[in-house]
């Protein structure tokens, strides 16, 4: 149900074909669909509004690419705006201070703070050779401190010995002292969460931040957080100086809308993504991947980029004009074959477009493959210009000559002729869409 943004946009934009630029009214209409996609991906409403305004501004006035549908083009524009907003820059942890560098983890209960603490500790130890100490300041949940100790044993990272009855601020002070005395490079402070933002939690968190003055305060957020993301981001962001965000459970089926909400509301970079319960399931945040996920698209973006690059605009214009007259000859078919080959072949096309998967299966079943594209190209090459323009001239004698000339069989020649006929018929039916989309529709 999700991966239909380009289809939806296709309808909006069909009538836009042949015009020079994306105009405001059409873009606004398309953005209504983008808005739905963002809300389905759980992006918070105020963020959706802000984003749509920005993307609209970018899209209006862009000249229409002939080789992709305007819908696909808008998806690309929206995608680029998403990537930009999610933060194209890679941001590492800031540990460049006199040791110990202190990293404080904050967030709601169950968001994944304790797990992420252990993951970051493990990563710093393994990849940067850091000497790391972890301390749990969670005195609310029974066994929370033991949970971190267990993770410490699993990752072979030191944890602060547990002293019963101590309050979070005192544990933080003890941890800092231990880290300093024992020469740790990094101290990770895992704090307590609540089910919802509340005053006591915020006060406690502020007090800990004040005594420990961390280099990094990372807000840990479950990627399934929906509209509540606004409250979480605002409340935490207003009370402490967040330096970054960690999104957990990106291995689940969340569409990643929380990433956009968090980023937009706090203005802080998303530094990591949690992608599983295992302690090495932590990745650097990848804005491109998350943007694709939010829009629910295959790599339409890559397709549009390649199409814009490769497909000759004049050629596309010529073909569009011919199709408008209901003509589609062998030369046109060859042009289509070549464009498909240039774009990486049928498999690449199928991989890039969600709707092409079914089409690819149908092509496989009918023996259509990349080698065949080349063979068909060779057969067309053995035809005279007259034959190419008027395929109905192809009688038995001509077919034998062409088969010989191209090193193929008469059967192959017949196959091509049949393909051309089917395509010409399909092209007539769908000529207002044209180009690649026409091909996809024919094979689908
Ligand atoms: P805390 O209350 O914020 O400290 O949350 P925990 O670290 O105790 O995590 C709560 C649950 O979420 C645990 O069962 C974790 O294994 C799980 N969890 C944390 N991060 C991830 C993640 O990235 N992916 C998945 N699938 N589970 C996670
Ligand atoms: Mg915890």
UniProtKB/TrEMBL annotation:
TM helices/strands, residue ranges: none
BP terms from Gene Ontology: SRP-dependent cotranslational protein targeting to membrane
Domain SRP54-type proteins GTP-binding residues, every copy: 269-282
Gene Ontology annotations for the cellular component aspect, listed alphabetically: plasma membrane; signal recognition particle
E.C. number: 3.6.5.4
Localization per record: Cell inner membrane; Cytoplasm
Membrane topology (UniProt): Peripheral membrane protein
UniProt: GTP binding residues: 107-114, 190-194, 248-251
Matches recorded under Gene3D superfamilies: P-loop containing nucleotide triphosphate hydrolases, Signal recognition particle SRP54, nucleotide-binding domain, Signal recognition particle, SRP54 subunit, M-domain
Major place of residence: membrane
Tree of life domain: Bacteria
Cytoplasm as UniProt keyword: yes
EC class name: hydrolase
Catalytic reaction equation(s): GTP + H2O = GDP + phosphate + H(+)
GO terms assigned for molecular function: 7S RNA binding; GTP binding; GTPase activity
Pfam family, one: SRP_SPB
Entry keywords, A to Z: Cytoplasm, GTP-binding, Hydrolase, Nucleotide-binding, Ribonucleoprotein, RNA-binding, Signal recognition particle
Family that this chain belongs to: Belongs to the GTP-binding SRP family. SRP54 subfamily.
Subunit details: Part of the signal recognition particle protein translocation system, which is composed of SRP and FtsY. SRP is a ribonucleoprotein composed of Ffh and a 4.5S RNA molecule.
Domain remark in the UniProt entry: Composed of three domains: the N-terminal N domain, which is responsible for interactions with the ribosome, the central G domain, which binds GTP, and the C-terminal M domain, which binds the RNA and the signal sequence of the RNC.
Stated role: Involved in targeting and insertion of nascent membrane proteins into the cytoplasmic membrane. Binds to the hydrophobic signal sequence of the ribosome-nascent chain (RNC) as it emerges from the ribosomes. The SRP-RNC complex is then targeted to the cytoplasmic membrane where it interacts with the SRP receptor FtsY. Interaction with FtsY leads to the transfer of the RNC complex to the Sec translocase for insertion into the membrane, the hydrolysis of GTP by both Ffh and FtsY, and the dissociation of the SRP-FtsY complex into the individual components.
Protein name according to UniProt: Signal recognition particle protein
Organism of origin: Sphingorhabdus profundilacus
């Amino acid at each position: 149900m999700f991966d239909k943004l380009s289809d939806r946009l296709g309808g909006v934009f069909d009538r836009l074909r042949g015009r020079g630029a994306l105009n405001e009214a059409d873009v606004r209409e398309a953005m209504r669909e983008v808005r739905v996609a963002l809300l389905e991906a759980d992006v918070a409403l105020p963020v959706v509004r802000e984003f749509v305004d920005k993307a609209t501004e970018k899209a209006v006035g862009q000249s229409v690419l002939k080789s992709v549908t305007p819908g696909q083009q808008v998806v690309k524009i929206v995608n680029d705006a998403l990537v930009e907003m999610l933060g194209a820059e890679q941001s590492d942890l800031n540990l460049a201070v006199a040791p110990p560098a202190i990293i404080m983890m904050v967030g709601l209960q169950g968001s994944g703070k304790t797990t992420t603490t252990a993951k970051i500790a493990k990563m710093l130890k393994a990849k940067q050779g850091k000497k790391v100490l972890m301390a749990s300041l969670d005195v609310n949940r029974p066994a929370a401190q033991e949970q971190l100790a267990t993770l410490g044993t699993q990752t072979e990272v030191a944890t602060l010995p547990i002293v019963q009855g101590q309050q979070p601020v005192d544990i933080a002070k003890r941890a800092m002292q231990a880290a300093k005395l024992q020469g740790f490079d990094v101290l990770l402070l895992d704090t307590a969460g609540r089910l919802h933002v509340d005053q006591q939690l915020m006060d406690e968190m502020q007090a800990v931040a004040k005594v420990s003055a961390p280099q990094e305060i990372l807000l840990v957020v479950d990627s399934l957080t929906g509209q509540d993301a606004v409250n979480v981001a605002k409340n935490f962001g207003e009370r402490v100086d967040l330096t970054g965000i960690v999104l957990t459970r990106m291995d689940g089926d969340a569409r990643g809308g929380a990433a956009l909400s968090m980023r937009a509301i706090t203005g802080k970079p998303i530094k990591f993504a949690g992608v599983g319960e295992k302690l090495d399931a932590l990745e650097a945040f990848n804005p491109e991947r998350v943007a694709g996920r939010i829009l629910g698209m295959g790599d339409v973006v890559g397709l549009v980029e390649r199409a814009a690059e490769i497909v000759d605009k004049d050629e596309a214009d010529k073909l569009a004009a011919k199709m408008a007259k209901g003509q589609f000859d062998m030369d046109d078919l060859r042009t289509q074959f070549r464009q498909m080959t240039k774009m990486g072949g049928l498999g690449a096309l199928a991989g890039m477009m969600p709707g092409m998967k079914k089409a690819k299966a149908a092509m496989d079943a009918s023996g259509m493959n990349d080698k065949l594209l080349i063979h068909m190209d060779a057969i067309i090459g053995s035809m005279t210009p007259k034959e190419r323009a008027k395929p109905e001239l192809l009688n038995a004698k001509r077919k034998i000559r062409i088969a010989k000339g191209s090193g193929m069989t008469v059967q192959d020649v017949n196959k091509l002729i049949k393909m051309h006929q089917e395509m010409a018929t399909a092209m007539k039916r769908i000529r207002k869409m044209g180009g690649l989309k026409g091909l996809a529709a024919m094979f689908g």
